[in-house]
Amino acid sequence: MFVRPLSMEEGRKIQRITRTAKDPVKLRRAIVVMMSVQGQSVPDITSLMQVGEDYVRDVIHAFNERGLDALDLKWSGGRPAVISEQTRKHICLIARTVPAEWGITGQSTWSLRTLAEHLIARGVVATLSREHLRRILRKGGVSWQTTTTWKASNDPQFIAKMQRVLELYDHPPTDGRVICVDEFGPLNLMPRPGKRWRAAKSPARLRATYHRYPGVMQMIAALDLATGRLYYRIRKRKRWREFLSFLKTLRSRWPGERLYVIMDNYSPHKHPQVRSWAAGHDIELVFLPTYGSWLNWIESEFAALRYYALNGTDHRAHTEQNAAIGGYVRWRNARARPKTSFAASSPLRSWTSYPAKVA
Asked: In this predicted model, what pLDDT tens digit does every residue of 68-92 receive, in sequence order?
């Protein structure tokens, strides 16, 4: 019993399949056909391929009847689903609720076991294993996630303030320079969790400690959008005096230019002496909306600083930690680029009022 004579085109396609096919079933069937074309008998193919004679005969018969289509195994799809599509959607809907909404006390979230028991008790399904429930939820786009928080702004002038900040980001004034300022800290001495490359199953270990004997330091920094460079000071406190001193440093760095300083509503930023000095030295203080610190472009720089300079460290002295921060800032400033396109595709660009639900 052998495969019928092949056309030249069929021979080329079968040869290509035996070299490139990634589906093991299709590859095995193509090899059986190729060996049969080369004159190998069914017992020889059975011995070489380690398959049964019935399998080889079925492949040859199928190829002789249907040609190349016989190489693609048509899966039947298994038995029909016991749980209907509508019931699966209902299960996913219940999974997105919390037990308290169903009068269940003592539980703040579902486990697979408690959810399955609840579904059976309510008659949604007759029986349901945890593994089957997990597959239903995954297919329905429901996953186990950590809750997050969102501080909604109560600022009645939110849109106006946001638009002012975005306007400065998008179209920096030609008569000055836009600077983003914020505090970073407190900088205490403690083992900080982080990530690093290590040999498999050999994580780096940091000491455990509950003491903060050397106290804390405070960092204030400024991001120059025109160059992308970061400037900072580390002090023991972060009062209005330290903030005013930092403003004077920024003023002396760019003499003759008007400074547009974007910052949050921290009380030292609004101190009367800070406002008075800024007004007399060609500095405009641009305040963010209440609870809108995420509009400050420097926040992303702080995230990078924490990740690269502090995470995974265990500094024992502030001088050591400050040196690490200084080293990162110098490395970063050497590669700085002007800051453009803040949240260019974000929905906040289309806001005309503060949304009721932004999380």
From this structure: 888 887 666 667 888 999 999 999 9
- Mean pLDDT in residue range 22-32: 88
Strands 258-263, 176-188: pairing is: parallel
Q: Quote the CA–CA distance of 13 and 309 in Å, as a whole number.
A: 57
**Cα–Cα–Cα angle for 90, 96, 97, nearest 5°?**
95
Is the link from the previous residue into 186 a cis peptide, with omega within 30 of 0? yes
DSSP assignment of 245-310 = HHHHHHHHHSTTSEEEEEE---GGGG-HHHHHHHHHTTEEEEEPPTT-GGG-THHHHHHHHIIIII
Q: Which of 148, 183, 340, 175 is CA-nearest to residue 267? A: 183
Distance CA 282, CA 255 (A): 10
34, 164, 173, 315 from 221: Cα distances, Å: 71, 21, 22, 21
Q: Tens digit of pLDDT for each residue in 179-195? A: 999 999 899 999 998 88
- pLDDT above 90 (res 113): yes
